[in-house]
Amino acid sequence: MTTLPSLYISHGSPMTALHPGLTGARLAELAAVLPRPKAIVMASAHWLSRKPLVGSAAAAETIHDFGGFPAALYQLRYPAPGSPALAERIVQMLDQAKLAPGADPARGLDHGAWVPLRLLYPDADIPVVPVSIQPELGPAHHYALGQALAPLRDEGVLVIGSGSITHNLHDLRAGYSDERQAPYVKPFIDWIEQKLAAGGIDALLDYRRQAPFAERAHPTDEHLLPLFVALGAAGASARAQRIDAGIDMGLLAMDIYRFDGPTTPLTAR
C-alpha cells in the first residue's frame, strides 16, 4: 500500500463552506493527486481538551460550532462514517506513547473538520476519526502526538491537522482587507515556510520566541498546534510542500502544507 502524506490545512472562516474560493480550488487539486485514503484522522483546532481524546462514534454528527452566520450554513451536513475500530487503535497508540488518551463516543465533526473535508472529499464516504488538541501542552506535545500516529500513514490513513497558519481574530476590527494586509502576516508565514524547508524542527517548536510577530499571528496556540501533529506524523525525514491558498480579509493566511518523506532529516536550526 502507498504511504500517504500528512496534511496541514488552514480552514479559514466557516463561510469557506459556502464560498470556497482559492482554498476550495487548492483542496480539490490536492484531492485529485492524493491516493484515496481508507480513513482520515482529523486533528482540529476547534476540539480542545486537557488530554488527547479520540472520537469513537460510528457516525459523526456535523457540529455547527459558530453563531451569526447565514442560515444556509447551518443546513450543511457532512455525514461521513466514523470508525470505532480505528479510534480504539489510535487510543492504544497514544497510550503506548504515554500521552494518557481517552475516547469520546459522542464527538462529532466541528467546522475545522467538516468544512475542509467537504472540499477535499465532498461525497463524505471516507471514515473520519477526530482527535482533540491540548492548548495548554504546546508544540512539542503535539509533535509527539503526530509521531504516535505516523504508522497509520503506511496503512492508507490520511492524517490531517486543521487550523490556520495565522489566526488573530482580534484584528478583524483593525480594518485589514484584501487591499490592506496585516503587516505581520507575510513575515510570519515566510518564516514558517523557511524553517519547514530547512528542517528546522527545534526552531519551529520554539516558534513563539523565534518567529517574527508570533504573538500577533497567534495570540493563542490552538490554530497552529495541528501543524505539529501533521509534521510529527510525517516522520523524521519529512519534506514540506507549501500550497498557497491566499490570505483572507488581509489577516487569515490560508496556507496548506503537504508533508512527504524521505528527505534531509529535520535538524536544529
From TrEMBL:
Record carries keyword Metal-binding: yes
Keyword Zinc: yes
Keyword vocabulary terms for this entry: Dioxygenase, Metal-binding, Oxidoreductase, Zinc
CC cofactor: Zn(2+)
GO MF terms, alphabetically ordered: dioxygenase activity
Signal peptide: none
Domain Extradiol ring-cleavage dioxygenase class III enzyme subunit B: 34-236
Pfam family, one: LigB
Transmembrane residue ranges: none
EC number: 1.13.-.-
Family membership noted in the UniProt record: Belongs to the DODA-type extradiol aromatic ring-opening dioxygenase family.
PANTHER family: 4,5-DOPA DIOXYGENASE EXTRADIOL-LIKE PROTEIN
Protein name: DODA-type extradiol aromatic ring-opening family dioxygenase
Species whose genome carries this gene: Rhodanobacter terrae
